[in-house]
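Hi X.,

You mentioned you wanted examples for the new student's onboarding notes, showing what a folding record looks like when two proteins sit in one file. Here is a clean example. The first protein comes first, with its sequence line followed by its structure tokens.
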Amino acid sequence: MLHQYVAVPTTSRAEVIAAFSYALDLTEGQPAGHSIRSCWIGMEVGRAIGLSNTELRELYYTLLLKDLGCSSNAARICELYEADDRAFKQGYKTVGTSLAATLHFVFRKTARGRPLARRASAIGNILRNGDAIAQELIMSRCTRGADIARTLRFSDAVCDGIYHLDEHWNGSGRPGRLSGDAIPLFSRIALLAQVVDVFHVHAGPAAALDEARRRSGLWFDPALVEALESVSSPPAFWGALSSPTIESRVVRLAPGDCEQPLDESYLDAIADAFGQVIDAKSPFTAGHSQRVGQLSECMASAFGMSDDRARWLRRAAVLHDVGKLGVSSAILEKPASLDEHEWIEMRSHAVHTRAILGRIGALADLAEVAAAHHERLDGTGYPLALSGSAISRDTRIITVCDFYDALVSGRPYRAALPINEAIRIMSEAVGTAIDAECLEVLKANLG
């Protein structure tokens, strides 16, 4: 079964970025649509304070991509707090601004369920090194987010807006301890919009407004809180946030002047950018998506595919693990065998990959090919237990490249294997897990 190459549908950059923002929600532990709703809130505030069309366009993408670097601290959070990174992040966002509330949360969540001595050790480390830990985690997130935004060809204003997301009006934030008007305006709006959405989903409109007022002058620019109160007074404001059409409404909000054309080159940039987001989830997967993409493209050419088809397959290969953004780092980083519950969550990443790519018009034709990379020829793979000819050559190529790169790279449970040993292991899986012809083409192209 061959997957046919499909030309790029006429969708906008805003539609593609909005759809990909759901992947960021996954890794940040937020309910689906968090970035979309934050964008709606922030754009309403931006209009209320009289931003120009150019400023609104840059604010728009700052809001959608504010969490672009969030995967980069996931493994470290898991290591330091001995907790599910996604659940930890989600819970932390509902903690108040006081030191007592923060400490209560940390004490309650750190190494929960572990022996008392281990919990005490982990909590003691955080108490001794709390400031340095907070700076490390936020600096990692902010730097990576701004760098990936540059890969997506956004302006310095958007990159700076993402980088300074966690600055606070009173100077208590990070990474630069900026205060007041020294904080980029887009960062100020994005932080307000983020907190409002979190508390709105958690406890409703009144709680969201109360939290905004409580943090006014501390975390938030008081003028922006006033603007929020003004635009949120009509019930339609909160109704829009709960509407099933919120994503399409946010896509229509995108100011259209000077729009980046959604051509083949930009789709490559999008795939590369989100490949970086995926690989940042674990220190063991640094560069994995790019390597699988490059090797898949090389193999496609060796099979005689056209340059356009090989380019298309490279995108699918780069994005094959996007669903891992929805898997806890406690599972991805586990240095031992997974239990049954953990395997269920691990296998869910293929379903997440299909769901994320399937909602992106310009990349939807990649979804089935990318999501099937753990299917096996003997029918024992996942997520659909496909077998034989039901698995396309496109997927077979990605599978063999993914298998190979995983073997020759270090993992939490073993060191990287030599190439000869990796090929030996793969040869034993021919006919059951991987395709014989694909393995031969891989071996011929390893040089």
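Then the second protein repeats the pattern, sequence line and then tokens:
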Amino acid sequence: MSKVFDGVYCPSITITKDDGSIDYEMWGRHLDHLAEAGIDGILIFGSIGEFYAFPLSVKEEAADFAIKRVAGRANVLIGVGGTNPDEVKEFSAYASKAGADAVVAVSPYYFGPSNAAAERYFDLVCESSSIPVILYNFPPRTGTDLSPELVAELAAKHPNIVGIKDTVDTISHTRKMIAAVRKVNPEFSVFSGFDEYYTPNRVAGGNGVICGLTNVEPELFVKMNKAYHDEDYPTMLACAKKINKLMAIYDVADLFVSAIKGGVKAKGLPISTGIREPAVQLTQQQYETIQNLLK
């Protein structure tokens, strides 16, 4: 469990055909693009990957595909979140055996769990996974917040919990998270889930971002990350400013998943922008707006 996760990670869209089935040809081309651009890791079945919309059998098949397609060119993380503990346990064990580098576990949603219930849930994940576990905190979607204190307690209890994606729209939360978990594990990885927080995350001592626009502009994020490591701060700041402008893409569609799919299509991959029902699909006018934002 000594691997340190760091840099820019892409929560990949799950590219589907118009009928909702996975389009493995186009998804494979997208995964190739991400790997060739130099992305440090790829997360499948995160929020943008529509983890909530696919049956377990399809997700297991897709995990095998993604791991084989990426073929070691980047870390592959598998999102195992769900509300059925038996399926979460099964998928965590499956991802471990399939060759994933880590599993990513969002806290249970609908009934936003108490700290005690969250601890029981993550106990199940950690016991089912023989590979590192990265927690995923997304309060607007789950209805509960994984506090820095709770995450530190979980990290102390489970050495295989090695990081967290903190999708909270305030850097102070992430800063406090870093301070709390590093007392338990100095190498604990803390990522922001917001694209524009790469720089403040690094300033706070964090490890980078796991964010959606990496699907659309992976080269820009890789350039920014390299500039950070090279201490080329003018270049890093210039990249950050471009990303800040591109954040407007998220607001174009009814759901951000559609917007990101529209961005990938606008960059040249001829994919369906369809997302799994129930959903409001991307309109032609919205797509043209995204095209203009990317010009």
